[in-house]
Amino acid sequence: MEINYCSACGGKMETRDVDGTPRRACTQCSFVHWGNYSIGVGALVVKEDKVLLVRRAQDPGKGYWTNPGGYIEQLEPIEETIVR
Ligand SMILES: [Zn+2]
């Protein structure tokens, strides 16, 4: 089933490239429909007593520093998500 309207603001959804994957995304706000389920994973990358931090590319918290993470793709093993 294709998502036609944004569940956050009611705006019209379109299909566009989000980080290399076609996704349904709102034309009026930053909402992205990641799928019928959303499982997030995060990783702590430690090297020589330093921790890797990245800046969030998406809302909520776009621009804030955090540990690397994201949503798994359907049927993707969690280990592959962490590497990706
Ligand atoms: Zn919206």
Characterize the structure shown:
The protein is mainly β and 84 residues long. The chain has 2 domains: 1-36, Single Sheet (Ubiquitin Ligase Nedd4, Chain: W), CATH 2.20.70; 38-84, no CATH class. 7% of the residues lie in helices and 33% in strands. It has one helix at 78-83, and strands at 13-18, 21-26, 32-33, 40-42, 46-47, 50-51, 54-55, 65-66, 69-71. The strands form 4 sheets. The chain has a 3-stranded antiparallel beta sheet, with no helix packed on it. Strands 4-9 form a two-stranded antiparallel ribbon. β2 (21-26) and β3 form a beta hairpin. The mean pLDDT is 91. It binds zinc ion (ZN). Zinc ion binds at residues 6, 8-9, 11, 26, 28-29, 31.
Could you outline the blueprint of secondary structure elements for this entry?
Layout: E1 13-18, E2 21-26, E3 32-33, E4 40-42, E5 46-47, E6 50-51, E7 54-55, E8 65-66, E9 69-71, H1 78-83
Antiparallel strand pairs: 1-2, 2-3, 4-9, 5-6, 7-8
The structure holds zinc ion.
Key descriptive features of the protein:
single chain; Ubiquitin Ligase Nedd4, Chain: W; 2 domains; three-stranded antiparallel beta sheet; two-stranded antiparallel ribbon; 1 helix; binds zinc ion
- Report the sheet with the most strands, covering strand number, pairing sense and barrel closure: 3 strands, antiparallel
Structural class category: mainly beta
Number of domains: 2
Cofactors and ligands = zinc ion
Mean pLDDT: 91
Q: What is the string of SSEs from the N terminus onward?
A: EEEEEEEEEH
Number of strands: 9
- Measured as a percent range, the helix fraction is under 10%
Query: What gap, in angstroms, lies between the N and C termini?
Result: 27 Å
Low-confidence stretches: none
Rounded radius of gyration (Å): 15 Å
β-sheet strand percentage? 25-35%
Q: Looking at the structure, what is the overall shape? A: globular
| Strand numbers in spatial order across the main sheet | 1-2-3
Number of helices: 1
